[in-house]
Amino acid sequence: MYPLIRPLLFRLDPETAHGAALGLARLAGPLGLIAWMRGRIPALPRRVMGIDFPNPVGLAAGFDKDGKYLTTLARMGFGFIELGTVTPRPQPGNPRPRLFRIPQAQALINRMGFNNAGAAALATRLRSSGYRGVVGINIGKNRDTPPERAADDYAAALDAVYGVADYVAVNVSSPNTPGLRSLQEVANLRTIVHRLQAERRRLAAAYERHVPLVVKIAPDWEPGQLEPVVEQLLEQQVDGIAATNTTVARPGLEGVPAAAEAGGLSGRPLKPAAEEVLRTLVRQCRGKTALIGVGGICTGDDARERLEAGADLIQLYTGLVYRGPRLVGEAVRAAAAARPCSRAWRAAH
């Protein structure tokens, strides 16, 4: 059914189409149409970061920033859903248009700019929702917060969402907030993660629960840049690393008009870079922290390959835009057939 609907949605501005698709999905869910489109979802439990996931296939941040469609998205069969990115204070994001399709490459370019209603609003919505599935919350800094005060923003966002999140992902890698990627530099990252670890200890005592911290990193690194960053994350004992965010490169899109738009590229062209970063993480982390593979997963084979390469969990986004709920079922079934990649195997490779 989705291949029939998609041409109609693609006649709309991409951001408008996104809202329309989610609205249609909300109507279709209670009728069983989403379950029919996605197909069978096998039970495939995984325990990662101390969390019990029904299956290892999740939805990446950005699809439902403010948690308005949790129940609808859960019907697609995801093992977990990552909301956000949310910031301490609400912000409108960048001016429209800010989302662009490249259908011939199954790709998107976005420069959304963390448009969201704020961390506190998301937390309030989650508390009242009664939702019981696994929820990650992706946090960032406000655009007008200077980099030297970024740790304050991340700590404030963590404080706001701690009570409702199963894990929190720290976004220091979006290309769409000026200066944000500089926070991945070792000294800046050390300051932010140290502050978050201290804040988490306080919150864990107050809430009597441990919420894992995941750091989401970029795919764009010069030779020798990534390894010191990973070493810093391991030293600070983060619970997980997500690889990767969108890319500022335009691989294979030379001469494509839409590729000239500013913003982060996602979808199939991102796959090689995201895979290469994951391979580096597998070699360097050697099973010491959880790894989430995201970027360019557009088929069941892509999902299986990322898990076999060493990811503990994977996430979808752009592939869902082009393939609809069918991709979720395909990815979970492919994950069930994947060769197990144990931490012992990763430690030996």
Rg over CA atoms, rounded to whole Å, is 19 Å
For the secondary structure, the number of strands is 13
**Mean pLDDT rating:** 96
Task: Give the CATH H-level superfamily.
Answer: Aldolase class I
Q: In what order do the strands lie side by side in the largest sheet?
A: 3-4-7-8-9-10-12-13
Strand-residue proportion: 15-25%
Say what the CATH topology is.
TIM Barrel
Low-confidence segments, ≥5 residues, pLDDT <50? none
Report the order of strands and helices: HHHEEEHEEEHEHEHEHEEHEHEHHH
Helix/strand-derived category reads alpha/beta
User: What is the domain tally?
Assistant: 1
Helices, by number, come to: 13
CATH top level assignment: Alpha Beta
- Based on the structure given, which CATH architecture is correct? Alpha-Beta Barrel
Outline, from the CA principal axes?
globular
Helical proportion?
25-40%
Outline the biggest β-sheet.
Answer: 8 strands, parallel, barrel
Distance between the termini: 43 Å
